[in-house]
Amino acid sequence: MENPIKPLIIGLTGGIGSGKTTVANAFAAKGIELVDADVVARQVVAPGSAALQQIVDHFGPNMLLADGSLDRAALRQRVFSHAADKDWLNALLHPLIRQKMQDELAAASSPYVLFIAPLLLENQLQSYIDRLVVVDVTEQTQLARTLLRDGGSEQQVAAIMAAQVDRTQRLAAADDVIDNSAGPEQLAPQIDALHQRYLKLAAQRR
Ligand code: ATP
What family is it from (predicted)? Predict the structure, then answer.
């Protein structure tokens, strides 16, 4: 996985509730900059953005909440049953999201940058990264931790898991794996070791 953009870009992915945020925060504590695909996707439709205005022009003012932000539930509902609307929305947002992700990755000033993308494999974003680290737990652990964090039903979480690539596919795509099946004390040494490896790889590029 080669990319022409400096600095070294490490992709971080994992299924729902696997511990991506927990792991990313540990890298951030070491001074590593993070670019989060979900955050970027929200920023491109922030209040005042050209994309939000285009969505309102296209679908009407009922796409806005009272505070002027995007009503994601209304938009999801609208495109769910209208394929042409979904295509229109994707054609608007995908180039904007991709450009902003690239800009932020290229602008990072830490020795390497962590690109957090829960759907990195599903959305085929491998060309953005130099190396992929997967946060790995069993499906039972994903389910248990997500329910503990968010509440909701087992069926809801299972449906989200079913829409994501499965554990085997994720592990097959991984260059590095962080085993998050045990407690936080198990994470630190793995993250320390990867941090050292990534610093070395970053130094080799310079
Ligand atoms: P999502 O894809 O849903 O955003 P995520 O991959 O970012 O999830 P986290 O939010 O980091 O996952 O972790 C899921 C939940 O599990 C959180 O409540 C977190 O505090 C908890 N958790 C993470 N790692 C561990 C661990 N090693 N032991 C126990 N709980 C953990």
Answer: Belongs to the CoaE family.
